[in-house]
């Protein structure tokens, strides 16, 4: 490369607000083209394109305090630049919200991962970011084969979880739950998969709904500060992502177990100021309740389990009124029809 791409690294340059991050394009000795479009946006093209290549969007930092995926992404991009990681697909890497990352906060004004639907939201820093991310997503997937589009939006959970890693498959009008996704999750040792039952406003939903992408929100451990994450816990996931980037079939050193599959039974929305859960903040995701057990209230309305062993995920009583306060899920078995995951 005749022009240096980074002063320090992809992540460090993105978070250094004094660093210009002007557009630049370089070619590695392996013939891989790397384009920086702006702060936090890197496109990678293989030396020679094939009709079978995937077009893989990897995003992280949609919530600024979820840092493990940022360190993983920095590792992949830096290895690509150094020629240590082969590139066999078309990739777009996005660090979504540098301002929130620098403040180690979930967001600045409003939750960015609730701004990808068609509603006209009030003008905020996050609404501006959401529009920019939509633009890059639209451009990246433009004129690509529908079956080649993949999107991994990487997150961490606010609280502990009975499944250290898990994924959420957004509900869309397209066939976006291919068996290849289940194979990837198995090889990556992702412990659980949640099948959403309704449209949402998340980034992964946008890619699935508007581009028919095989899209997942993937939760990798718990929030932590940069430099304090134990990435060794997610070695299988990092290796599986390396295989995807290299355009290789996912391989595993041992026969991987399939994720436990859950279906969303309902979404709990906060409707009043007087909203709270009866359990402690350290209760982990996927904690289950017996049928009829009351676990909170929304005003005078009790919140109770409507199914036996119904479990709660992403409980957050402090969300704004009208936003999601939790998902309720139940375990299901799945089968495959035309290569798509179907609940029994």
UniProtKB/TrEMBL annotation:
Pfam families: AstE_AspA_cat, AstE_AspA_hybrid. Its EC number is 3.5.1.96. Pathway: Amino-acid degradation; L-arginine degradation via AST pathway; L-glutamate and succinate from L-arginine: step 5/5. It comes from the Bacteria. Transforms N(2)-succinylglutamate into succinate and glutamate. Zn(2+) binds at residues 63, 66, 155. Residues 54-243 form the Succinylglutamate desuccinylase/Aspartoacylase catalytic domain. Binds 1 zinc ion per subunit. Residues 258-331 form the AstE/AspA barrel-sandwich hybrid domain. CDD domains: M14_ASTE. One of its GO terms (molecular function) is succinylglutamate desuccinylase activity. It catalyses: N-succinyl-L-glutamate + H2O = L-glutamate + succinate. Its cofactor is Zn(2+). It comes from Vibrio zhugei. This is Succinylglutamate desuccinylase.
